[in-house]
Structure formats: C-alpha cells, structure tokens
Amino acid sequence: QGAAPDFSDREGNTSLHLAVKHKQLECLKAMLQDPTKFNINGKNFEGMTPLHVAVQEKNLDMTKCLLDYGADIDCQDGKSGRTALHHAVEATCSPLVGELLKRNANVNQPSYSGCSPLHVASGRGHLDIVQLLVQYGADTTMRNFTVSLDNHQAAVQNTQGASGSAKSPSSGQK
C-alpha cells in the first residue's frame, strides 16, 4: 500500500514541503498530478505551506509550479500571518515579488500585526521593491499596529520622487 501521501515528518513537513526544500521540481510535479492525494496548502509545524517554503528558498521555478497547480497565493502562514508576498519581500527577491504580483497576490494583505508587504519593504529600505509594490497598487496610507511609519513614508516619498509619480492609494487594490 505504501505510505500515506500527506504523512509528515517530525517538523510537520509533508512530501510536498520536502520536495520544495530539496529542490526536487520533477518530484513535486509528479506528486501534484493527483491533487486528491496531497494538500497543496497544508502547513508544517512552523505554519508554512509548500509555497511559503519555495519563496523562502528563493526558488522561482518551485513557486511557479505550486501556483500553476493551485496553491493559495494569499494563504497566511500560521505564526505571523505573512503571505508568500511578505516572505518574498523579506527575502529581498524582486523576481519572486514581481511574479507574485503578476499573479494577483494581494498587495495590501496585512499580517497579524497589520504589516503589509509595503511596510516590510520600506522598513528594510528595499527601494526597488517599494517601487514595484506601489506600481501594483500598494496602499501608501495603510497603517500597521506596531511600527512607526517614518521609514514607510520616507520610502514612499522617495519612490514618488524617483519615478516622477506613483499611483494614488485610491487607484490600487483594497
């Protein structure tokens, strides 16, 4: 009979998590051929889905594959409520950020502490990612629950100065 497809290891990782972690794209694709056997949005004990792991590993091919097979692009991790977009911003990976935005990731999804991906990018000084998020409609007036917005506002003003113009908050997603 074999092992149960969604059996997890001592860290809660399923075979999907492990295929992503060990960069086994062909194995991942083979497993995803039968979506009834695997929970593509299943979380490990850290609250991470295979998509979160792919993004943290900065693996664009794995990320695309999981999204192609229906991974929830806006699924929040179980600990902090960060989405794949938050993790891509934290990893300072512009190609992943761009791919997620092209696939309609919610640019304004707050984490449990109210931080949007724009808060994360501006707080870390990632100007290129701030510009990309603003281009895709990030709400520059959104407030979080814990952090001063001084860095956020400075980054937004810098973006508007660098690009000549930025989308108004009313033109972006809500």
What does this protein look like?
The protein has 174 residues and is an all-alpha fold. The chain has nine helices and no strands. The termini are far apart. 40% of the residues are buried.
SSE topology sketch:
Layout: H1 15-21, H2 25-32, H3 50-56, H4 60-68, H5 84-90, H6 94-102, H7 117-123, H8 127-135, H9 150-163
Helix pairs in contact: 1-2, 1-3, 2-4, 3-4, 3-5, 5-6, 5-7, 6-8, 7-8, 7-9, 8-9
In brief, what are we looking at here?
With 174 residues, the chain is mostly helical. The protein is built from nine helices and no strands.
Which tags fit this structure?
single chain; 174 residues; mainly alpha; 9 helices; 0% strand
Provide the residue-averaged pLDDT.
86
End-to-end separation in angstroms reads 48 Å
* Helix content estimate: 40-55%
Low-confidence stretches: 164-174
Structural class: mainly alpha
Overall shape:
elongated
Strand content: under 5%
Described by strand count, sense and barrel closure, the largest sheet is: none
Number of strand segments = 0
Gyration radius, rounded = 17 Å
In DSSP terms (H or I, runs of 4 or more residues), the helix count works out at 9
Order of helices and strands: HHHHHHHHH
